[in-house]
Amino acid sequence: MSSVHMQHVALGVMELTVLAVKSIRNLNGHSIGGYQIHAGKSVPIVKGGEQRKMEEGEFYAIETFGSTGKGYVREDLECSHYMKNFDVGHIPLRLPRAKKLLATINKNFSTLAFCKRYLDRLGETKYLMALKNLCDVGIVQAPIAIN
């Protein structure tokens, strides 16, 4: 893993600062299936990760994540995006508002990622408790929050 040393580059009147960029070592690329963004296999971006082989006919998202910080993701901030779990079966919901929100998610996103702004654009209001309920019971997941 190499990084660029901090240096200053003068371009005419403008001065730019180049910062050291590190690979985020605990984020990976991944296999993709039909309506399944994370289909099971990981593709590490730093040495020492999963050693499974890619097979013919599989599809992958080869993602590189860079950071000028520590190069590691901590899951301790508010989540910005959500996804319905691909393999979730029927889970009974007690909150009517959670049932309504799940219907909106199923109709508009299925198992693809969405954010709160997308729900706002669809006219959803007062959905935070319902979204939390869907996450708590395992229907929706909040993948990561990057720091």
Automatic annotation (TrEMBL):
<dbReference type="InterPro" id="IPR036005">
    <property type="entry name" value="Creatinase/aminopeptidase-like"/>
</dbReference>
<keyword id="KW-0378">Hydrolase</keyword>
<dbReference type="InterPro" id="IPR050247">
    <property type="entry name" value="Met_Aminopeptidase_Type2"/>
</dbReference>
<dbReference type="InterPro" id="IPR036388">
    <property type="entry name" value="WH-like_DNA-bd_sf"/>
</dbReference>
<dbReference type="GO" id="GO:0006508">
    <property type="term" value="P:proteolysis"/>
</dbReference>
<protein>
    <recommendedName>
        <fullName>Peptidase M24 domain-containing protein</fullName>
    </recommendedName>
</protein>
<keyword id="KW-0645">Protease</keyword>
<dbReference type="GO" id="GO:0004177">
    <property type="term" value="F:aminopeptidase activity"/>
</dbReference>
<dbReference type="InterPro" id="IPR036390">
    <property type="entry name" value="WH_DNA-bd_sf"/>
</dbReference>
<keyword id="KW-0031">Aminopeptidase</keyword>
